[in-house]
Amino acid sequence: MNASKNRTIISFSLIALLATLFSHRTLNAQTNSCVECHKELEEELLAPVDAFKLDIHQQFGLSCSDCHGGNPAEEDIDLAKDKSFKSVPKRSSIPEFCASCHADSTYMRQYNPSLRIDQLDIYWTSEHGQLLKKGDAKVAVCTDCHGVHGILSATHPKSWTFPWNIPQTCGRCHSNSEYMEGYKIPTIQMDEYKESVHAHALFEKKDLSAPVCNDCHGNHGAVPPKVTSIAYVCHQCHPSAGELFSQSPHKKAFDELEISECEACHGNHRILPPTDEMLGTGEKAVCIQCHESDSKPYQIASRIKEKLDGFVEKIHSAEILLERADRQGVEVSEPEFRLTEANTVLIMVRNLTHSFSLAEIEGKIEEGEKVVIEVTEAGEAALNEAKFRKTGLIIATVFILLLAIAIFLKIKQITKKYPA
Ligand code: HEC
Ligand code: HEC
Ligand code: HEC
Ligand code: HEC
Ligand code: HEC
Ligand code: HEC
Ligand code: HEC
Ligand code: HEC
Ligand code: HEC
Description:
Elements: H1 2-30, H2 33-38, H3 43-52, H4 56-59, H5 64-68, H6 77-80, H7 94-102, H8 105-111, H9 119-125, H10 127-133, H11 142-146, H12 166-174, H13 189-194, H14 197-204, H15 213-217, H16 227-237, H17 239-246, H18 249-257, H19 263-266, H20 296-327, H21 333-352, H22 358-417
Helix pairs in contact: 16-17, 20-21, 20-22, 21-22
The structure holds heme C (HEC) (9 copies).
């Protein structure tokens, strides 16, 4: 009797145990206690769940516990937050926290073999990383540029690191004079950048090849570029100006004096569309910043400008000539097409400025002026033709008129002779 009672108790307990285990297994397979519980919570305890739905880590099958540790199979908060649970990292330890995966090549290769794993190493070389090491937690850490629970790949237009969101991402700190108080750097970079030819290309023309903050400063190595690296940065996208500059007399002189190549004349954040006025010896000319009026470079600057102005003027006159001919109905599409060739030469001449060589620029201008002369001749011929046609028309009209009068008189004479 006792034995059978015991047996019943044992089998009931076994069933109960199996049932518990079974029910636990179903929870395991279908739910994640971190998400289930946090989605019932409020504010900063709920926010991660909502934001995480779009997160790139979620898309690759990672979840809360991959970053925070803990056991998502346990419903009970104390069991879920077991010894492996890592609480919220301090700002100063975030780089290490993210890099626990991102610097681990074996781990990252399982997901994406082509993703770089050097972000942390490079970060430590940046001004941000250097200062963080010294205990300054106001500098940017990974989450300041990428976000926390809504991290997106840089190719996603809503990502904080997508080109046209970057000025805002950096500007959140760098344009905030209150936040940046106590540092010795200006807070105007974003405002200046927004006026630049680069920002115009990016935001107005939607040209994603135009540089934003990270193209000149690096993604993870943000430092003010040194004299040599600035040139490297600009050369990458403006190889032709860069090449000419490197072969110009300025190259050696600038290197020796540690003048920054492109920046000296174009600036850095507020690069404006260049104009011919930057050349020569006028008020807005950059050349007079360094060259005295009695120096040879000053004379050269002045000659280059004269030549350029002359060429521009000739193209302009040819344009006016063709317009006049066109208005008078003469076909001028051929010389018009030739004139675009002269305009191409003009673009080349402006680029050739960076050789700072009068001989080279003169040579190019002569080439262009030959074209303009041909166009001008064609334009004049067209105008002559128009004139010729006009006189022809007048003669013909007068002739027809005289004929009409003669016929009229003749008819009158006949009707007088033979009245009806
Ligand atoms: C049964 C509910 C519940 C479960 C399950 C749960 N949490 Fe929480 N979590 C909370 C509450 C409540 C807080 C608020 C702080 C506290 O009481 O510890 C919190 C706080 C946190 C915090 C921030 C503050 C801190 O204490 O470090 C993190 C991070 C966190 N949970 C992650 C997780 C992860 C990861 C899991 C899954 C492994 C998880 N939670 C499972 C309820 C839960
Ligand atoms: C890619 C790693 C990562 C993942 C995945 C992740 N977290 Fe976090 N979480 C962090 C970091 C880093 C912080 C600290 C952010 C900070 O201090 O700015 C944090 C902070 C938190 C906080 C504290 C929020 C606060 O404002 O105090 C909670 C709660 C939290 N996480 C819950 C979750 C939950 C729930 C999930 C899953 C839906 C999750 N986390 C997924 C990295 C992660
Ligand atoms: C548990 C490991 C792990 C942790 C911790 C982690 N990540 Fe990731 N992260 C990944 C994996 C895996 C991917 C997906 C690989 C991919 O995007 O190709 C990824 C993708 C990313 C991407 C997108 C890369 C791209 O362009 O494709 C960014 C950005 C990113 N993580 C930033 C962070 C930041 C910031 C932190 C710290 C708050 C962090 N990660 C913490 C594993 C992790
Ligand atoms: C100052 C801002 C900033 C900080 C700080 C920062 N990142 Fe990035 N991160 C970027 C930008 C900008 C990109 C790239 C955008 C692009 O590809 O055009 C990027 C790209 C990435 C990528 C994609 C792969 C790659 O290298 O291009 C990963 C992964 C990543 N960051 C992780 C991290 C981690 C981990 C940290 C912290 C150690 C971190 N980032 C700190 C701005 C930052
Ligand atoms: C969380 C705020 C924060 C964000 C976001 C941030 N920075 Fe910084 N940055 C700082 C602080 C603080 C310093 C230290 C200032 C100093 O060097 O005196 C700094 C320093 C720098 C420096 C060095 C300046 C110098 O001359 O010493 C550069 C360059 C820089 N940041 C570029 C960037 C770029 C580019 C981005 C965006 C991709 C960015 N920062 C995002 C806070 C931030
Ligand atoms: C076309 C390249 C370029 C772009 C784009 C650019 N910078 Fe710079 N930045 C520079 C150069 C060059 C310097 C060095 C100035 C010097 O030392 O003469 C610099 C210097 C800085 C400094 C150091 C302090 C200072 O003003 O001299 C900070 C901070 C900075 N930039 C932030 C930014 C931010 C934020 C953005 C985006 C809104 C940005 N930069 C966009 C080229 C660029
Ligand atoms: C990531 C590529 C990139 C980098 C780096 C870059 N630029 Fe540009 N730059 C562009 C693009 C794209 C345009 C716009 C062309 C257009 O739409 O007319 C442009 C336009 C310009 C213009 C105006 C050209 C014109 O004909 O109106 C100047 C001047 C200029 N950049 C100078 C610089 C200098 C100086 C640097 C270095 C401090 C630099 N750029 C770095 C891509 C770049
Ligand atoms: C000594 C002054 C000076 C320096 C240094 C300089 N430029 Fe220029 N740049 C000019 C002038 C002047 C013009 C305008 C020419 C014109 O429109 O008549 C110009 C025009 C330009 C243009 C538009 C015309 C073109 O070339 O397509 C670009 C792009 C440009 N510069 C890029 C650069 C880059 C990149 C560097 C560095 C390698 C650089 N510049 C260095 C003076 C300079
Ligand atoms: C940032 C200063 C700076 C600017 C701006 C500048 N130069 Fe120079 N330039 C120099 C230096 C330094 C030298 C070498 C010493 C010398 O010959 O005066 C030099 C040399 C030259 C030379 C070579 C002279 C020779 O004897 O071979 C020419 C030509 C020249 N510059 C033309 C120009 C023109 C044109 C401009 C305007 C577009 C200009 N420079 C703008 C600093 C500058």
